[in-house]
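Hi P.,

Sorry for the delay on this. The queue was packed all week, but I finally got your sequence through. Input first:
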Amino acid sequence: MTADFQTLEVIQEREHVETVALSRPEAANALNTRMGEELVAYFEALAMTPSRLRCVILTGAGEKAFCAGGDLKERNGMSVEAWAAQHLVFERMARALVNCPVPIIAAVNGAAYGGGCEIAAACDFIYASEGATFALTEVKLGIIPGAGGTQSMARAVGERRAKELILTGRSFSAADALEWGFVNAVCPADALTGRALDTAMRISINAPLAVRQAKQAIARSSGLSLSDGMAFEIEAYNRLVPTEDRLEGVRAFNEKRAPLFRGC
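Then the structure:
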């Protein structure tokens, strides 16, 4: 990705893995219009050329914040029309994250509040540092989560817990998030990047078409009955049978070597 971003730092970690860091350190990586637009640009471009990468790590620049939420200084005094126009960007951003065919790992290295918590929740799964904190504080500002937070939180922790967190707006720790199933693992701050990169590399050596089909089948199943979900799974499975990667996987197993997947 060669775009000239102002609020994102994109680092090529390995051949098939990139790290995207939310980078507005002077504002605790708060989400402003420009950051929303750049996240849309990055992830929509990736959706158009998913073969370019096999995994993305999304994190925050610095050590204190993943993303402190919407930039309230930018929003101060906004007209209703300007607020609505900005929120359309944030809605498109959330959809770009959720619908990205390439797996996204959130590496939450500090505060993830409001929109920052929603960005993390829109990723496929989350690793958090021991000092990370989370909150959906929108009700304290006269609004509600509007970038998928009411949906993703309820799916992750259950309806009753989600209501408690969203209606109170209270923060919760990384340990709480792990206990409730919101994050997958908690690790020391200095080990967070390594843990996310290790998992990204494990994903990247697998057949990329199979990974993308599996991701889609899992994501779609939450809105389907078991029988419909299984039918969708078979459709996703059958698309992989004619691929060269399927043939390579079986060949490599029988030849007792690591497979070399090409995404075709």
